[in-house]
Specification:
Layout (H helix, E strand, L loop, with lengths): L8 H10 L8 H12 L2 H4 L1 H9 L3 H25 L6 H9 L1 H38 L19 H16 L1 H26 L15 H12 L8 H4 L7 H28 L21 H12 L12 H8 L3 H14 L1 H20 L18 H17 L2 H29 L12 H17 L3 H25 L1 H4 L15
Length: 506
Amino acid sequence: MKFDRVKSLDAIIATSKKKSLNRSLGAFQLTMLGIGGIIGTGIFVLTSEAAQKAGPGMMLSFILAGFICMCAAICYCELASMVPAAGSAYTYTYAVMGERLAWMVGRALILEYAIGAAAVASSWSGYMVGLVRNLLHVDISPLWVNSPQAGGYANLPAVVIILMITWLLVLGTTESARANAILVGIKVMALTLFAVLAIPVMNTSHFTPFMPTGITGMAGAAASIFFAYVGFDAVSTAAEETENPQRNVPLALIASLGFCTAFYLLVALGAIGSPLGAQPVMAADGSVLAPGTLALEHRCQTIVAGGTPTPLPCSHEALAHILRSIGWNRVGNLIGLAATMALPSVVLMMIFGQTRIFFTMARDGLLPAGLARIHSRYRTPHVVTIVTGIGAAAGAAFLPVGTLADYSNSGTLFAFAMVAISVLILRRTDPMRARPFRAPAIWVIAPLAILGCLYLYLSLDLVAILVLPAWGMTGLAIYYGYGRARSHVGRQDTVIPCPQKQSRDS
């Protein structure tokens, strides 16, 4: 595969100015967008899955995933400051490695955003059901909140929340950002309250054994927990709607990621030290059961039927369940209420990010032009927003949260690695271009990001590993069957020839 049909950075910036979105987001709103995307399913729900995979070793999982994300975020900062246009990793790859690989990255971002939105909506459903049970004493039939894999028909609450968020995004970016800022405040207050109540009563004996599943379990948990950090790159997808993006985008990227990492570690401390502990649930033969499986579900039911409190890995509302276990029943219900109110902000961020990727690909001619239509009144890409919402709702209805998160991670890790590679190539091929944010020690940070993404990808479950190449192959079929012939770059012969040193098999 050769690097061909490279769209220059100047052409990308010119296109974004010619057919641009409304620049209405400031530094604060953009940071809130990043925090809103990061704090969500990973800490409110996937804490249970991390405990099942790694036990107390999930502390190291949070650190590992956060470090790799920070390396990737620094790479994003440099590119986002150079190219303040919509499209994120897709746009950056188009400018450096050409149309084919850009299309592949765009396809991977569908896994990150659309499937990620489905995962968050599915996790929101668990908190909502728990809240209704504890506050109203009403049990919602599991047939309508479980996926078919868990013995249900469909996750109906998840479908409803996605459709509501889709409607909000159609109304407008500014309105969505304002609503998001409120929801972010609720989440931050909830996590602060959790840490304040849980850490002082922490039992340090629950940290032993620290890594019951070894390095493999810790890495597997990091690969799942990675989903808790990925929201930060939605900041770069909003660059075209940001005031002074050269300054505000890097600031929002680093601020949102650093803020959330500190919170994650505090919450993990409280969870591990709680009366529930964080040791994995074992099968009768002593083996560790895989999260999200019927075998784990049945084992959890057996444990609870014997009079033992529900273990942390068995809970679908981890933080609320922990607070109830230490005697804070009403506060636990409030945490459940906060998660129920605030998790939709993550769904909002992910659908928002996906629509901007689709919008940019349609603007480039790789997808039908109708997807890039802007609503005459709301000035939003309403068609692609509706299409994304329907697709995310379908995923949330029929797949469990852990499976959706791992699928999302496979696409995200590929996209992050491609961004890091793009930064290195641009440093060689266009060293004189202005870089409002110049990443420090890039020849150390970018390789660490690439190797870290590869390590986490190989630590995913086998099915999730295979999803990415299968998804990519179907994407190439669509590209050659539709997009390549209609690409504006290819059709108008505006390709910038690649220097010989840049052209190689990849």
